[in-house]
Amino acid sequence: MSRERLVHPLDVRSDIRPEWIAIHEGGGLSVRWLREDGGHPSLFGAGWLHAHRCNQDSSINSIKPSRAARPEPIEAQWSDVMNDDSALLSWLDGYIERGWSIIKGVPQEKGMAIEFGKRIGTVRSSNFGFYFDVRSKAAPISNAYTANFLPLHTDLPHYEMPPGLQILHCLSNDAVGGASLLADGIAVAEHLMRSEPDVFSCLSQNRLPFRFQDSDSEFNARHPIIECNELNEPTYINWSNSTIAPLDSSFENIRSIQSAIRRFVTLIESPTFKISHKPSAGEALVFDNRRMLHGREAFQPETGYRHFQGCYLDTAEVMSRRNALARCHQHVEFI
Length: 335
What we know:
This protein is α+β, with helices and mostly antiparallel strands and 335 residues long. It has two domains: 9-51, no CATH class; 74-325, Clavaminate synthase-like (Double-stranded beta-helix, 4-Layer Sandwich). It is 26% helix and 27% strand. It is built from eight helices and 19 strands. The chain has helices spanning 46-51, 78-83, 85-98, 112-120, 185-195, 197-205, 251-268, 315-329; strands at 18-23, 29-33, 40-44, 74-77, 100-104, 132-134, 150-153, 165-173, 176-177, 180-184, 208-213, 218-223, 226-228, 234-237, 274-277, 284-288, 292-296, 299-300, 306-313. The strands form six sheets. It has a six-stranded mixed sheet with strand order 4-5-16-8-19-6. Strands 7-17-10-15 form a four-stranded antiparallel sheet. β1 (18-23) and β2 form a beta hairpin. α3 packs across α8, α5 crosses α6 and α6 packs across α7 (251-268). The two termini are 13 Å apart. Residues 71-312 form the TauD/TfdA-like domain.
């Protein structure tokens, strides 16, 4: 029932070999293993064999990111994604492909970001709390809690594992200015990989220090700005000018890193990649925090009130919910 492995690695003889093999009805593979105490049978289903075949793409995500420099958001209605599993699955597929979404018709009440997060999976806490209110404050512990321009960044690179999904529910956005900014960091990374391989190599091979400090905490972590998989393909982005710590590499390497950072920031802020959208009250902005850099134009708090409420989830929560829904709606068996 647990679907977890019971056989210990040392329970399997190192010289194990089949005594008899045959194709079973339905395309499965029957194997009888040679053992001193008699043949032990195994039956492997054709679907299981296909799913676990050798030399396949090892990526956990079968939905590939959009190749657009400025991907369009997937839009959805709150009532649909909250009440219809088919609509939620369709939304999740679009969100994974495009990296960000606008959900409309969200009730203008506090706590709705948490409600949507629970619809997907388990909401993750952070040093900013189980949820956070993004508004101008008198004594901010983050640049986000000011009215200042907020450069494009990913959240929490000072954590060993930054969160994968961020929900920002707009409760009020009446002030002059304050448009939300986004850029697809994976699109930028792929551009660098194709056109400027030296910059790509520098940003993917150097683990940079990030730090967050306040009166109650001090977080430190190291990440490359462009994080790659085993095939050297860009998979995650880690960048925050607000929380990057002083560089501590060799002097010669620091000069190269600084130059590569300047090129990366120039690209994400260029019209080719930068996206601008000013959410209205009742909209939720949902984006992949490890792909889409986000920021904000400066706003004038004396002209109106601006208040967002947000929370985080891990990437694994998003993928688990999507895969479980797909298995149910597409009648896919456990594999």
